[in-house]
Design a protein that fits this description.
CATH topology: 2,3-Dihydroxybiphenyl 1,2-Dioxygenase, domain 1
Strand content: 35-45%
Structural class: alpha+beta
Number of domains: 1
Helix content: 10-25%
Strand order of the largest sheet: 2-3-4-1-5-8-7-6
Distance between the termini: 25 Å
Order of helices and strands: EHEEEHEHEEEEHEEEH
Mean pLDDT: 93
Largest sheet: 8 strands, mixed
Shape: globular
Low-confidence stretches: none
Number of helices: 5
C-alpha cells in the first residue's frame, strides 16, 4: 500500500503563501528550489518522518504551464496529495487495467537545485486524462535522494484527509485498484481537505475549484 508522501498547497505568490502557512502552523516553511519546465518553485514544512507540506508557487511561468495556472489562482488551495512508491513501473501496469477514464504519464525524471546548490532528483508518475482533478493523486519515487521531511522545519503532523467527489463510487474503485489507502464520500462538489495538528492547534487546509484543476493533464 502506498504511503502519503506530501500534500501540495498552491499559492499565487511564494512569499505571501509561506507567511500564511507560518501564521497557521507556527513554523516557517523553508525554501526548496525551482522546478525547471514547470514554471514553479516551492517551500517545504516537515510533517514528521516521511511526510511534508509543499507550498508551490509560480516562478517565471510559460503560457500553459503549471506555474501559469498557479499565478491565476484567486486564493490559495490544496492541489492534491502525493503517494510514495518505489515500483512506478508496477503502478503503470495497474493503471493500464483500470479502464479508459485514466492513463499514466511517466516515470518522469525530475530535479531541482536547493538554495545551497545541491542537485536533488527523483521520479514522478502522473495519472492523466481523467476527470477527477487533484482528488486523484500522483506518485513519487525519491530513489537515492534524502527525503525532504528530514531537513525541512517541523510544522506538525497530518491527522485526517477528507475527499469529497461527485463521482465517489468510481473514484473509490480507482483507489482500490491502485492500492491507494483513501476513501471518497459522495458530494455535490469536489473538495479536498487535510487536518493538521500544529503548535498553534488544529489547522485545516482546503482545496478550491481552481486549485484542484492546477495539475489537470
Amino acid at each position: 500500500m502506498a504511503e502519503i508522501d506530501h500534500f501540495v498547497w498552491g499559492v499565487p505568490d511564494l512569499r505571501t503563501g509561506c507567511a500564511e502557512i507560518e501564521y497557521l502552523f507556527g513554523a516557517a516553511p523553508e525554501r526548496g528550489g525551482s522546478h525547471p519546465g514547470l514554471g514553479t518553485c516551492n517551500a517545504l514544512l516537515s510533517l514528521g518522518p516521511g511526510t511534508y507540506l509543499e507550498v508551490m508557487a509560480p516562478e517565471d511561468p510559460q503560457p500553459g504551464s503549471v506555474g501559469e495556472r498557479l499565478a491565476q489562482l484567486d486564493a490559495p488551495g490544496l492541489i492534491t496529495f502525493v503517494l510514495r512508491r518505489t515500483d512506478l513501473a508496477q503502478v503503470m501496469q495497474s493503471v493500464a487495467g483500470c479502464g479508459t477514464d485514466v492513463s499514466a504519464l511517466g516515470p518522469i525524471k525530475t530535479e531541482r537545485l536547493t538554495p545551497q546548490g545541491e542537485r536533488l532528483s527523483w521520479q514522478l508518475l502522473f495519472l492523466t486524462q481523467h476527470a477527477y482533478g487533484g482528488l486523484l493523486p500522483f506518485f513519487i519515487d525519491w530513489q537515492d535522494t534524502p527525503h525532504p521531511s528530514v531537513s525541512a522545519p517541523l510544522g506538525g503532523a497530518a491527522t485526517d484527509l477528507t475527499i469529497r467527489s461527485t463521482q465517489a463510487q468510481r473514484l473509490n474503485q480507482l483507489f482500490a485498484s491502485l492500492e491507494i489507502d483513501a476513501s471518497a464520500a459522495e458530494a455535490e462538489a469536489d473538495a479536498l481537505s487535510v487536518q493538521f495538528k500544529t503548535r498553534t492547534g488544529l489547522v485545516v487546509l482546503q482545496s478550491t475549484p481552481q486549485s484542484l484543476a492546477v495539475l489537470q493533464m
